[in-house]
Design brief:
About 5% of the residues lie in helices and about 45% in strands. By secondary structure, the chain is mostly beta strands.
Length: about 260
C-alpha cells in the first residue's frame, strides 16, 4: 500500500545463465489504472551455487524494513533491499555446516527452506525448546516483538553421509550500527535438530526426497520412494508419527484439518 488509493505489486525472480541474477518486477495501481511495469536486476556474488529460495522479511535492517532473503543450495544467505536490490548482508554457507549434526562436513546441500515468525514457531515446532529463544531480550508476541526465522533442512553432499540430515532454525543477523551494506553477518542458529533416517534403502537409491513442514503443528512430511512419513518435531527428540506406503506415488498435498 502506498496511500491515497495507490498500491504496489512486486514480483521477485531468480535466474541463472552464465551468472545468477535476481530481478524485481514492479507495478503500481491507482484504482483501475495500472502503471507500466518496471524492473531492476542485480547480479549475485558470493557462492556460485544456484538459488533455491526467495522470501520477503519485514525487519528493521539498515535504511528500510523491506528485505528480500535469498538462500543458495549450499546454505549461503543474502539479504537485499526489497525496493532497489542493494545488498545488505551475506551469511556464509559455513553458518549452516558448523551448526549441522555433522559439523566436520563442510559441503552441505539445502533440501528445504521456509520462513516463519518466532511466535508461531514457539507455539508449535519449538514448543519443547524454549531455550532456543534465549538470545532474544524481549518477550515474543504475535502482534509485537516477533522476528523472522529461516528454517532449512540440509544434508551432506557426500552420498555416503546423506542420511545425516539436519533441521536448522535461524534468526536473521542482528546488524548493529553503524550499518555497512554488504558485510558478512552470519545468521544466528537458534537450534539444530537431527532428522531420523527410517528407510532401509540409502538416499542414493531413493532419489530426491520431498518435504513439507507445518511450523504451527511441528510436523514434517517426507516423501521418499513410495513411503510418506510424518515426523513429529515438537518433542525433545523427533519421533515418527505415522508412515503410509503408496505404490506409484509421486507427490502429496497436506490438507488442513478443520471442523465446522
Amino acid at each position: 500500500k502506498l496511500g491515497k488509493g495507490r498500491a504496489e505489486r512486486r514480483t521477485y525472480a531468480a535466474t541463472t545463465d552464465r551468472d545468477s541474477h535476481i530481478t524485481l518486477f514492479r507495478e503500481i495501481s491507482a484504482g483501475e489504472t495500472l502503471s507500466d511495469p518496471s524492473s531492476a536486476t542485480h547480479k549475485l556474488t558470493g557462492s556460485k551455487k544456484p538459488v533455491v529460495f526467495l522470501g520477503v522479511a519485514h525487519e528493521n535492517i539498515g535504511p528500510s524494513e523491506d528485505n528480500l532473503i535469498v538462500v543458495k543450495a549450499d546454505g549461503e544467505m543474502q539479504c537485499f533491499d526489497g525496493q532497489d536490490l542493494s545488498l545488505k548482508w551475506i551469511s556464509p554457507a559455513a553458518a549452516v555446516s558448523k551448526n549441522s549434526t555433522t559439523p566436520d562436513i563442510q559441503d552441505n546441500k539445502v533440501e528445504l527452506v521456509t520462513m516463519t515468525d518466532a511466535y508461531t514457531a514457539s507455539r508449535g515446532l519449538l514448543k519443547s525448546h524454549p531455550d532456543a529463544f534465549s538470545m532474544f531480550t524481549e518477550e515474543l508476541e504475535a502482534e509485537g516483538f516477533n522476528p523472522t526465522l529461516v528454517i532449512a533442512i540440509t544434508s551432506p553432499t557426500d552420498a555416503r553421509l546423506a542420511e545425516g540430515r539436519t533441521l536448522h532454525v535461524f534468526a536473521l543477523p542482528r546488524v548493529t550500527e553503524p550499518f555497512v551494506p554488504g558485510h558478512v553477518h552470519s545468521a544466528q542458529a537458534l537450534i539444530s535438530l537431527s532428522i531420523p533416517w527410517v528407510h532401509s534403502r540409502t538416499p542414493a537409491l531413493l532419489g530426491e526426497l520431498q518435504y513439507e513442514l507445518h511450523v504451527g503443528s511441528g510436523l514434517l512430511y517426507e516423501l521418499a520412494g513410495r513411503t510418506l512419513t510424518i515426523i513429529d518435531l515438537t518433542e525433545s527428540t523427533p519421533k515418527i508419527k505415522s508412515q503410509l506406503i503408496v505404490d506409484n506415488i509421486s507427490s502429496f498435498l497436506r490438507l488442513r484439518v478443520s471442523s465446522s
